[in-house]
Structure formats: C-alpha cells, structure tokens
What does this fold into?
Amino acid sequence: MTETVTDTAIVPNHIAEAVMLPASYAEEQTRTYPALAWLRANNPFGLAKIDSYDPVWLATKHADIMEIERNPKIFSSGKADPFLVDRAGREYLKTANNGARTQDTLAYMDAPEHTKIKNVTSAWFMPANVRKREEAIRELARASVNKLLTGDREVDIVKDFSLYYPLRVIMTLFGVPPEDEPMMLTLTQALFGTTDEDSKRSDADDGEGASAKAWKATLQDFFRYFNELSADRRKNPTDDLASLIANAKVDGEDLPESFVNGYYVAIATAGHDTTSSTISGAIEQFARHPELLDAVHADPSLIPGVVDEALRWASPVKHFFRIVAEDTEFRGRKLSAGDGVMLLYPSANRDEEVFERPNEFDITRKPNKHLAFGFGPHQCIGQHVAKLEMRILLEELLPRLAKVELLGEPQFVAANFLSGPKTLPVRITPA
It folds into this structure.
C-alpha cells in the first residue's frame, strides 16, 4: 500500500533537528544516535520539515540505504550538491556557480560520466596496487608511533596524533612536500568544519548561507594550490597520484583542470578526515574497555577486525544526499522528482536488524557489513588505502601500548557531513 505524505510520514521536529543540524553532531552520542534509533523503530523513512531547510526524506535503515545507493537512475548524485545544505546556502551556491555544480568530482556525478572519471584512478586504488605502498606507509606509521610513545604521557590523541599520520600518508601518496602539510591540514579542517566554531575559517561570517560561503572560499584556496601542483606534474611527472591525475586523458582528451582539482580535493580531504576520526574512535574505545587491548596483545590477528569495527563505530561520513530523479515509490511512500533524500550512515551502522548488540564495540564482529564506505557505484574509491593505513598503524601502536586512559570526555566537531572527535585527552602508558 502506498502512502501519501500524511502526518504519519512527518518526522517530529526535535528528532529531525537531532539528525540534520550540524550542531547536533557535537553531541552525537547523547542526541544524534538516540534520535536515529527512534527513527529506525518508529519512522525509518520519514519526511523532515525543519526551518531553513527544504523538506528531506531521512533514510535510516541499512537495507534501504543499500537499495538507494544501488539505484542511481532514480536516486541521483548529479542533480544537486551531494550533501545537505540549508536553503540559503543552496541558493548561494547556485548563484555563485551560475547554476553549475560546485565541484567536478565523483560525488557530484552519475553514470556514464561518473564511470569515465572514476576509471582515471580505479586501477591505482585496487588492492594489489595499494599493497605495493605498504612498506612506505609502515615507515610513516612507525615514525608516528615512536613520536607518540617517546613524548609526553598526557596527550590529546586527536591533536597530537591521529590528525597527522593519515595526513602524512595521503600527502605522501600525492607527492605534496611535508612543509605544505600544515596548510593542507588547515584547509581540510576548514572545508568540513564550516559549522564548527573551532574549525571554521577565521574570515567566515555568521550571516545567511555562511557555511556555503566558507565551503566555496576554502575550495578556491585548494584549487589555487593544486593548480600549481598540476602544472609541476605535467612538466615533471613522477610515479605519484598527483602525476597520474594531472596527466590523465578521458576519451582521448586531457582531463579538464576543474576535474583534476575535484579529484585532488576529494582524495586529499576525505582521505584524511575520515581516517583520523576512525583512529581516534578506536583509541577511545580501548581507553573505555582495557580488556580489548589485552585481547589484541594476546592475539594480534584481531587487528583487521578492530579496523572494521572502528569504521562501523565512528561512521565518520555522516550522510550523503540524493535527489529523486523521477516520481517513484519507496517503502510504500510516494516520492516526487526533485525530492531530497539524506542517507544516514551512522544509523545504518547501528541497525539492529543487521548488527547484534550494535551499541557495543566488538572487535570480533563477523560478518561486519558496515556501510562506512558507502555502497554501490559511489562506494569510496580509497577504501583499500584507508583500511591498509589503519591496519598498519594499529599493528605498530597496539603491541607497544600497555594502557590508555581517558582524562576527560571527547569533544566532537559540530558538522553533519564529515565529523568526529576534535579533542580526546588521554594518558598513555607504553608497554
């Protein structure tokens, strides 16, 4: 039976705000996750109508998100920005870009364009090729762990550790020199932290559309840097990822500069923030549950399971956005062309129908069908790099870590797209 948009379809405002508003994610454990659990139980595909945003359908079930992701002809990535933007921000971006999309990057594309552009790097990111980088990544991990374990015993794991290792990995793969990494870190945090007081640009305003304006300005800063990098790699190509992208051809033509920059920004930013948040989330759980560290000491083969469970637990990508391409029905409800759908990955990764004891951090969980990397044609192209670098880091860190203790509760970034811990004060005891 198909249901029109009636009162039973409408999500209560306080629930919708808890899963849509960036500020809610600063309190995700006490505000967002309980709201997601309520939605799964009471209104798993409901319509949210809150101030300043266009109405949006909230997809909260694991199976529903997989179905939407595998059907891009109906649920399009190429008809709007692939993340939730308030009404003022959407109008600003539309005007600022003369109606064109904000970035020429994979997340903004549908097939066949998506397929062609993805093929530029798909072979590079295949597991067999990624494994060739293992020794170089291990050297970076070992250096990062050595610095942590020989320094102060009381540290902020986010600010002193987990931000820098994945940044060093991704910038090494690109060929970005170490002296430029602080700038890249600042830009990455500004891009995804436009709604967080500690992460947003220093020149950001607080007016209507402020987040979208800051996003656009940060993209322009990225593009200026990467334009120079591309020019250098065309003159002096190496075996790094930047050279592959800068010199790529599609249908016999050079990849346009906007597409080159779109690739760079997507890999440089998403490949950093997501991994950092996952590492921090894992270390927090080892602090809360010392028996997990004992289990890994006794059996290091558990470490790949730690990686997958940390990805499920942290769910650093909070959502992606889809636009309904044509009138359709979903979960018995009528959707109209142009409707927006918010895919809530943290909810999918706590779905009681898929995960036994979903609110427990279980490093022995098998199978672990998390959707931290998405699903379908838009599944994260860098997932094998991310899992490899996290596995290597934990292999280097955990055997040398006797104990980690919380010195305070973590604080989280107030952002609804990519977010995670921004502080995690701990005391570490080397083995």
User: Anything to note?
Assistant: The longest helix spans residues 257-288.
